[in-house]
Amino acid sequence: MTLYQNTLEFAQAADLKDPLRSFRDAFYLPQTPNGGPTVYLCGNSLGLQPKQTEQFLKEELDSWRALGVDGHTEGTHPWLPYHEFLTQQMAEIVGAKDHEVVVMNGLTANLHLMMVSFYRPTDKRFKVVIEKDAFPSDRYAVESQLRFHGYDPKEALIQWAPPNGEELCNFADLEDLMTAQGHQVALVLLGNTNYYTGQAYPIDRITNLGHQHGALVGFDLAHGVGNIMPELHKNGPDFAVWCTYKYLNSGPGSLGGVFVHERHAQDKTLPRFTGWWGHNKTTRFNMRHDFDPIPGAEGWQLSNPPILSMAAIRASLDLFHQASMTRLRAKSIKLTGYLEYLIDDLSSDKIRVITPRNPLERGCQLSLQIKDSNKLLHDALTERGVVCDWREPDVIRVAPTPMYNSFEDVFQFVEHLKEVVA
Q1: Do 228 and 161 have their domain in common?
Q2: CB contact at 8 A, 201 and 229
Q3: Closest listed residue to residue 126, CA positions, set 142, 137, 112, 107
Q4: Which of 10-19, 29-38, 242-251, 326-335 shows the lowest per-residue confidence on average (mean pLDDT)?
Q5: How far are the Cα atoms of 220, 228, 350, 405 from residue 422, in angstroms, in the given order?
Q6: Beta-carbon count within 10 A of 57 CB
Q7: Which of 35, 34, 39 minimizes the C-alpha distance to 385?
Q8: 395-398 and 366-370: which strand pairing?
Q9: Do 254 and 226 belong together in one domain?
Q10: For residues 186 and 217, what is the distance between their CA atoms, to the nearest angstrom?
Q11: How many other CB atoms are there within 10 angstroms of residue 364's CB atom?
Q12: Average pLDDT in the 361-382 region?
């Protein structure tokens, strides 16, 4: 017996029973030209603005106006330790200990900083494993690191690819790859939740596999943070990086985050690019000391942080703390399951879900391949007030985000899609 029904009444009743429904009112929903709310299913590209973000930003603008430089040490949220106000709640989201997490820089900058420390090639072990359809910025970063160390990416970059004619990667193929070449692999670096297909890779199994073969392991959680529950400390990768402007709703181009497992917390021999904000806090302002890294992830900081961006992040993390990732993930499974049910109920030979059917192998995103279509289909949805994402050549990415999306959003999207495809 199905959990779902293909009716507006069912969707509205499900929303009334949703224990997280009040969080929708905590966000601004973009409006259509006629003044109604859009069907916004694009949190995988840019999360919506929390209504309290303006207040959090204004507090820091007021401190700057009233206190000037003294805002670093005075005010409700002094700027000097401001990044620490984000640490506990960010650690909750990624399943880490507080000292394993820091918010800083942009995602790709953090990826480079982590590779400086954790891609340590030798004559015999110099290769890097990524997924074949990694997000371009990840591939560019890895290729540039390989060239920086004097290696040709054609030789040193290994791509974990789906079987021929398929979209999804197979863990058994990664096992075979590591069996054949693992003795030459220095780093396994995967996107965790693939931006195109929505496939979530098993962090624990991949980490164990990489470590068994003597490689270090890292993950890019750009599409995983605030979406799945990565349990980074328990699952044990050496590092992870992420952005905060997608599911974490911190605003366009906002700061990223870094996880460094505590096994590396006290290792001062790790090579790293350094800056003064990663230096011992008790002597940071005595400008004559040699670099003494803060234990844990904070030791990878370079510069004093941009407070206004962090204020926006704090506004969103406050909501995540109230909602809890456990409840958000439970709703996400139901919400995306409803989307999958409605798509299947269309019985259309033009629409195919390429995201894994197992909820444990995906987050909230479903990638829909539309046969014989082009971007005009996406444009038609846009004209109807639907905000989703088009990826060439024929895929619509749809992400019902549990923090602010509703079952009625999902129902309305499929109604629009049905009419446009027809």
Answers
A1: yes
A2: no
A3: 142
A4: 29-38
A5: 38, 34, 10, 25
A6: 18
A7: 39
A8: antiparallel
A9: yes
A10: 9
A11: 31
A12: 93
Q: Tell me the pLDDT tens digit for each residue of 46-60.
A: 999 999 999 999 999
178 vs 117, 133, 174, 330, 334, CA distance in Å? 22, 18, 6, 34, 35
Strands of the 239-243 sheet, one edge to the other: 101-104, 256-260, 239-243, 216-220, 185-190, 127-131, 157-160
* pLDDT over threshold 50, residue 318: yes
In the DSSP assignment, the letter for residue 307 is H
d(CA 221, CA 243): 8
Say which residues have a Cβ less than 8 Å from residue 376's Cβ, sequence separation at least 6. Answer: none
Q: Cα separation of 263 and 391, whole Å?
A: 39
State the CB neighbour count (10 A cutoff) for residue 321. 14
Euclidean distance between the first and the last CA atom of the chain, given in angstroms as a whole number: 29
Strand stretches in 100-174, DSSP E: 101-104, 127-131, 157-160
Helix (H, G, I), strand (E, B) or coil at 386: strand
Same domain, 100 and 176: yes
Tell me: do 232 and 107 sit in the same domain: yes
Cross-strand partners of 386:
39
Among 276, 292, 322, the domain-final residue is 322
Q: What is d(CA 402, CA 34) in angstroms, rounded to the nearest whole number?
A: 26
Average pLDDT, the chain: 96
Report which DSSP code applies to 201.
P
- Is 81 in contact with 92 (CB distance < 8 Å)? no
Nearest-angstrom CA–CA distance, 98 and 88: 6
Coil, helix or strand at residue 124: coil
> Which domain, by its residues, includes 126?
81-322
Q: 111 lies in a domain?
A: yes
Q: What is the pLDDT of residue 37?
A: 87
Give residue 346's Cα distance to chain centre: 31
Contact between residue 74 and residue 67 where contact means Cβ atoms under 8 Å apart:
yes
Asked if residue 303 and residue 198 are part of one domain, the reply reads yes
Pick the last residue of a domain from 322, 353, 387: 322
My answer on whether 130 and 266 are in the same domain is yes
Three-class secondary structure of residue 286 per DSSP: coil
Residue 196, both tokens? 């195109």
